[in-house]
Predict the structure.
Amino acid sequence: MTEEDSSAKMSEDVEQYLKLNPPCSSSSSSSAVAFANKSGTFKSSSPPCPEHVLENVLENVLQFLTSRCDRNAVSLVCKSWYRVEAQTRFEVFIGNCYSLSPARLTHRFKGLRSIVLKGKPRFADFNLMPPNWGAQFAPWVAATAKAYPWLEKVHLKRMFVTDDDLALLAESFPGFKELTLVCCEGFGTSGIAVIANKCRQLKVLDLVESEVTDDEVDWISCFPEGKSHLESLSFDCVESPINFNALEGLVVRSPFLKKLRTNRFVSLEELHRLMVRAPQLTSLGTGSFSPDNAPQGEQLPDYAAAFLACKSIVCLSGFREFRPEYLLAISPVCANLTSLNFSYANISPHMLMPIIRNCHNIRVFWALDSIRDEGLQAVAATCKELRELRIFPFDPREDSEGPVSGVGLQAISEGCRKLESILYFCQRMTNEAVTAMSENCPQLTVFRLCIMGRHRPDHVTGKPMDDGFGAIVKNCKKLTRLAVSGLLTDEAFSYIGEYGKLIRTLSVAFAGNSDKALRYVLEGCPKLQKLEIRDSPFGDAGLRSGMHRYCNMRFVWLSSCVLSLGGCRDVAQALPNVVVEVFGSDGDDDDDTVTGDYVETLYLYRSLDGPRKDAPKFVTIL
Amino acid sequence: MDEFVNLKETELRLGLPGTDNVCEGKESIISCCNNNNKRALSSDNEKEIESSSRKTETSPPRKAQIVGWPPVRSYRKNNIQTKKNESEHEGQGIYVKVSMDGAPYLRKIDLSCYKGYSELLKALELMFKFSVGEYFERDGYKGSEFVPTYEDKDGDWMLIGDVPWEMFICTCKRLRIMKGSEAKGLGCGV
């Protein structure tokens, strides 16, 4: 900032600042005004103007402010504070990549080191969105490559990322340190190879649940020779074999490596070798957890000893093709575990018991419903520190057997009183069990129950699940995220609207009777940011009832409801700052579906820069 | 109708001479179709497929499946241990739209549910309540004013049954049951 600039600003803001500075007497205010009228000829021996002092102070103070909500508040105080905040913000979070253009980002923030970007809405994960809808990383990497040569961290979720994008990233940011790609697609092992090779300061390379095409490139060998800075390497979602010797070599020369998540192409023997080389690991993804079928010439490796040696392991996952006879090898680390992910392993209660009974410190537990109600009871008996539980279905169909039920849910609620977050897939449930959880677990912030049979009532009483979910919103006063299922009437939604005052994310499927339900929620939940609804009888009237809210929400998704083009158009016309997209469920251009007016999917979101220019043909922006 | 399905010797096939592609079944279908993403079902209010025409000897009849329900990511579905083998056989589904001239709605079907033309045509007849007549290699369909056609990847409209089933599965983009004079034009010859 030059002195000319500062004096210009001075005349803008001088009054405000002088008011804010108690020590300033009227004499100093007059000299300040006098100064403002000059054109920057003062000598450095004079005391610094209040403007400068304040901005310096602000800069120093703001460095301690990391919460983006606080920073947003700071930026609204006045123009000067807005500027200083923009100069001192190093991390930015963009919850919807289409809510602003890359140019707007680079114009406002000049010193970014870290970017978190989210693209597609969550329902895209369930094939409800045609491919090639958008959320491309390309324009973002192009803009940031020019604006932020010192960028260090990129975290993307549900974005479309190409190998070219990764190459540009690797070339443009010499100090690049952390790349995390969650639920992304569009790239392959060749892109990863470029990152590995060119990002010499790389500390974190985490590929999580992303689709990575197999370009048959030995990307592990592309990490440069010499000591690496790697602290975290996760490639459990990469569905292609890797060069194990190269991986072992990499691990040996990565003294800072704490987190290593291997894919299922790493056998138990290979895992053993890695563990021996890296006893400092804290988080381990065990790969297949199954031995090679190669003949055992020599002594069997001592797996339990390897686990014993890794005293720091607190987080275990993997077990992609596990063999039960080896499971007990993890016993030495059970007492230290805070996180255990068995969600890709078909583990029975009998296999689980000996392990879980030692896991007193577990806070996060993910598993398949193969552990059954019995297994959940065992968890409830031991895991008193449990904060997060996720139970996924081994057989994700509506009519499959239901090995977990309200019995397991109630047991967990009674044993794990500190529970904060639950995701539970089941075939049948009772209001009683759900109510019990609402009473036993007051710390719940996330409650996601998926009764897989659509419209299924309480299997004991035959009544809708309204009362259970009602109890959750009423008793769990900290609830911010809710997913409902089973047979639900409008009444359930009236409870949500009445009590769900902190709810930010709501997921609804096959529920409700009428537009009233939607109205209850849109009128009753002031913190609602993300609303995703499918296959529910909500129409234009319901949509209209939320007009006053859409500018303050991140997005609304409504698919297979009863919306008409006219109703959606009304919203688009009334709210110029909201982008309203409508599209069908597949990517065909032609529109000869049932009726021209029927809207299969509505996706609306606020945007500072108007409708996007990259929408594919099958998307209509109203 | 079953006659042309059994004429192996005269079938045009994609394999090398001397190889028998019969056993490859779903794997070959999947490998030659680039788009493995399950396309969503639509068209009817109910959004369910009647897969009643599909016969499987080993597993019980598959209940109608709703797209994206239960909400489990396909990555997770495909990677659960021991489910992998099963899901490879189930395949990702090859969904195509079916329209019939004069009918006000479209339907979607999963071609991978059917083993051959006769099953497919029977299912279509049931779905749209019409009958398709008899297929003759030279002259197309005779005996009915309805002619089943499909659009292939090159955008050409072809008669259903003209090419071998495996090839059809890979190249079919959508189906249309033509009616009346337009049908006759296509029905004659190749």
User: Anything to note?
Assistant: The CA atoms of residues 578 and 606 of chain A lie 4 Å apart. The mean pLDDT of chain A is 89. The radius of gyration of chain A is 28 Å.
